[in-house]
Amino acid sequence: MLVYIVILAMVAVFLGLRLYAVLGKRTGHEQVFRPVEDRATAPLTIPRVVESAPEARDHGPSAIEARAQSGLRALIAADPSFDVAGFLDGAKNAYRMILEAFWRGDEETLDWLAEDHVRDAFAEAIKARGEAGHVLDNRLVSIERALITEATVAGRMVRITVAFDADIAAITRDREGTLIAGSTSDAVVTHDVWTFSRMLKSGDGHWKLADTDEA
User: Fold this and answer.
1) Which of 13, 14, 16, 80 has its CA 20 to 30 A from that of 193?
2) What global pTM score does this model have?
3) HSE on the CB side for 47, CA within 13 Å?
C-alpha cells in the first residue's frame, strides 16, 4: 500500500512539472497590446500573430500601398513572426492612445509611446496650450482607414509609415469651460501620416511613434 501511495505521489509531481513546462514558460510570441495601466513596466507593443509562413495570410491590397511591399517582405524575412494585420490593429490602438494622451496633457503616457523628439514636440504644444489657457475636449469618433504607405529595414532599424483617415470631434474650451472653437455635434475629417519604429532582434519588440505629419 505504501509503495502504491509513493508511486501516485511521483506521478503527480511528474504531471505537475509537465504542466508548468507547457504553461509556465514564454515562447517569445505572447506579446499583446498592454493597457495604459501597465505602462510603467511595459512599453508599447503592437500585437503580432505568428504565421507558419509569410504567405500564410492574405493581408489585403487595400491595407498596403505598392511601394511598401518590398520593405514588408524584407521585414518578414528578418522577423517571420511579423504580421501585417496584427501590426495595423496595434497601430490603430496606438493612434487613439497617443491622441487622447496629447489632448489631456498626459506627458507620462506620451513618453512611453513616442520617441524622444516626438515626445518633446508634444510637450511643447501642451505647454503652449496651457499658457494660452486652452483645454482640449476632443474625441476620436472613428478610424475610417489605416493604410501602410511605406516600410523600410535599414540595418536593425525598422520603420513603418501608416496613413490614418479618422473622424475627430475637435473642441477647444477656456479654463472656465466656455467653448472657444469647434463643435459638439460635428466631427472633423483628419488625415494623419505617422511613422512607427523599432529595433530588430534586440529582445525588445516594442514600437514607438517616430514621426508625425499630415496627408
Assistant:
1) 80
2) 0.71
3) 13
Name every residue whose Cβ is closer than 8 Å to that of residue 54 and which is 6 or more positions away in sequence.
Answer: 73, 76, 77, 80
pLDDT tens-digit profile of 116-156? 999 999 999 999 999 999 999 999 999 999 999 999 999 99
Number of C-beta neighbours around residue 91 at 10 A = 22
DSSP sequence for 47-78: -----SSGGGS---GGGB-GGGHHHHHHHHHH
CA angle 168, 113, 106 (to 5 degrees): 65
β partners of residue 154: 157
CA distances from 153 to 79, 92, 115, 179 (A): 11, 21, 18, 46
